[in-house]
Structures are given as structure tokens and as C-alpha cells.
Amino acid sequence: MANVTLRNVRKTYVGGFEAIKGIDFEVGDGQFCVLVGPSGCGKSTLLRMVAGLETITGGEIDIGGRVVNQIEPADRDIAMVFQNYALYPHMSVYNNMAYGLRNRRMPEPEIKTRVEEAARILELAAMLDRKPRQLSGGQRQRVAMGRAIVRQPKVFLFDEPLSNLDAKLRIAMRVEIRKLQRRLSTTSIYVTHDQLEAMTLADILVVMNGGQVEQIGNPLEIYQKPATTFVASFIGAPPMNLMPLRSDEIRSQLAGDSRAGEAGILGIRPEDFVITDETITGGVALGLTVEAIERVGAETFVYGTRQKEEQGVATTPGELPPGEIIVRIPGAVGPAIGERIRAVAAPDKLHLFTADGRKRIGS
Ligand SMILES: Nc1ncnc2c1ncn2[C@@H]1O[C@H](COP(=O)(O)OP(=O)(O)OP(=O)(O)O)[C@@H](O)[C@H]1O
């Protein structure tokens, strides 16, 4: 049981590349923290620094009240689960799980108890004599989890543990990992570039970009109130529609909105549009020509382009670049390609940001 605290943590690689530019956050005892961000944002570097596999250039990492900057990985009381599982191919499942404990000279009866308990939890009890090659991808991943569990560490660290699995198995394993973590209440830090995995697993979500934290918090709060346009477009699929607010006509639609003065960018989530000819007071209406439709069964994605010439709605030519807008509607209905529609969003669905996208305006 442990908190993990990062204080102004920095990493400059040999050669001078600054991969982590001063990061602060705390993961409470038993919480599940997910680091998410695009490729190269530094999330693996940060996780490896917590693990002790990468040196720390500046700041402090504290695990369970102890600064671990100078402490060897083996002495940090953490267990890491990697993307490639890193199982020993010539060893049985049992021995793979027991290996780390034997290295610590734990008595065999204690090892047996721990391995059997982990195997029971992970439904691997019938497979303890098999070699990794005789297992499916999902089962191998569970052995890798088992190896972490038997250590009974203070902290689990996961580095994209599901990325080698097919889509269906990923979802199943995602649910299993979350259930397991709740059951064991072990503080966890999990790295992924998959925003859906991040949303569904996290108690605390840390959205990273370019070696810095863009936003940190509860995943739903981040979804509902993204702090920057980067977060707005990274969290949520399809992403939030973002439009520069150069048009006086859009501005006039926003006239009653106290936030409008400072705003340079308007954001609307695809699911927050309604296709209607009616007007919603204080809302925004966009005239769209439907370019493409994706029906996935439970919902339909409508891809439209803004019409420059639409009267009273979108834009005046030259003022607001027409862009593609995605509208998400429930069910398998929806307009036809080429049709002109009016997509309307209510005032409480409008996200406003400064022109540089770095700041959210209002609540
Ligand atoms: N040993 C190294 N020396 C120099 N630069 C490095 C080294 N390792 C990583 N980097 C750089 O640091 C940055 C962060 O890398 P990191 O692996 O942490 O990213 P990531 O967010 O985990 O990306 P991905 O999702 O692609 O794994 C990248 O720009 C990478 O090129």
C-alpha cells in the first residue's frame, strides 16, 4: 500500500533531448492512474523513471513516503507488466511466476501458496505446467500479470500491456485488469496511447503532450471539461469538432454568451449536435452538406462540410474556413449523402477556448 508522488520530475536524455519537462502529480493509495498521450509524449519514459529503469535528471519520485531517486529498481517494491510479456520461453507457467520470488530466496512453500493463489485469481490453475508457447496471447498476458501479483508489490506499473492483443481480447483483459486491481487495491500506474482504455481504467487520468501534463483529473471531468484544445481532440472518439471563431455570424450567435469575448476557438462534441430546423436559444447552428455517412449499428456518424453561403447560419466567405464537422446520432437512421442539414448545439454544450487553444474559457 503506497502513494506515488512526482515532484517537478525531469528527464533530459544523453545528447540533450528534454523528454520530461517538469511533472507533478500524486497517485493516492490504491488508485489506478493512467498516463495517456500520443506517441513520443514521454509516458514510457516517465513510467520507467518510476520503475528505476531510467535515471531521473531533476525532481523527486516518492513511493510510500520514501524518495526513490537513488534506489535500485529491485528495491523499490514495484512490479512491472510489459507489452511483450517478457516471459521465459523454456520455463513453465509455474516457474515463470515463481522466478522472481526464488531470486529473493523466498521459502518454496510460501512461493507455492502465492503462485497457486495468483493462478486461481487469474484462472490459470489448469495451465501451470504449460510453457508460454502453449498459451494464447491473453493467457500469456495473464501469466505476466501473475508474475507481478505474486510479488505483492506496493505499486503495479503497466507499460501498454494489452497492445499485442486483438481488439476483442483487449476489451476483455481491460475489464479483468480493472477488476483485479480493485480486488487487490494496489496502487497502479498504467501507460497507454489508447484514449478509450485510458477513460475506462483510470481513477486519475494524466493527459501528456510533449513531455508535459496537459490535464490531470477524473476521466469524465476531463471529457466534460477539457482544459485545452489538445485534450479536447485527444480524449473522445470521434474527436471534438473545433472551429476557429473568426466569423462575425458565429460570434453573433454566441452574443449572449459571457465567455464569447475572450474566445478564439469553439468546440462541440459530435454527440452534442441535434439535427433540426429549430433554433435553440443561445446555441449554435451550423449548415452542413453531408459528405459521408458511417452506420455502425447503434449509432451513425455523419461527416458534413460547412456551407459558406448558408443564409443566417454558418459563415461569410473568407471569414470562417469551412471545415469538416462530425455529428454523431443514435440509431441507424440519418440523412443521405449530399443532403443539406442543420446541426444545432445547445449553449451548455459549447466549449470555448482561447485562440491558441491553451486555455479553456469559463467552467
Ligand atoms: N534513450 C533515449 N535517448 C534519447 N531520446 C529518447 C530515448 N528514449 C526515448 N527518447 C525520446 O523521448 C521521447 C519520449 O519517448 P517515450 O518512449 O517516453 O514516448 P512514449 O510517449 O512512451 O511514446 P510511445 O507511445 O511511442 O511509446 C521521444 O521523443 C523519444 O524519441
UniProtKB/TrEMBL annotation:
One of its GO terms (molecular function) is ABC-type transporter activity. Gene3D superfamilies: 2.40.50.100, Nucleic acid-binding proteins (2.40.50.140), P-loop containing nucleotide triphosphate hydrolases (3.40.50.300). CDD domains: ABC_MalK_N. GO terms for cellular component: ATP-binding cassette (ABC) transporter complex, substrate-binding subunit-containing. It comes from Bradyrhizobium jicamae. Residues 4-235 form the ABC transporter domain. This is Glycerol-3-phosphate ABC transporter ATP-binding protein. It is a peripheral membrane protein. Coiled coil: none annotated. Belongs to the ABC transporter superfamily. It is found in: Cell inner membrane. One of its GO terms (biological process) is glycerol-3-phosphate transmembrane transport. Keywords: ATP-binding, Cell inner membrane, Cell membrane, Membrane, Nucleotide-binding, Sugar transport, Translocase, Transport. Involved in beta-(1-->2)glucan export. Transmembrane domains (TMD) form a pore in the inner membrane and the ATP-binding domain (NBD) is responsible for energy generation. It comes from the Bacteria. It holds the Pfam family ABC_tran.
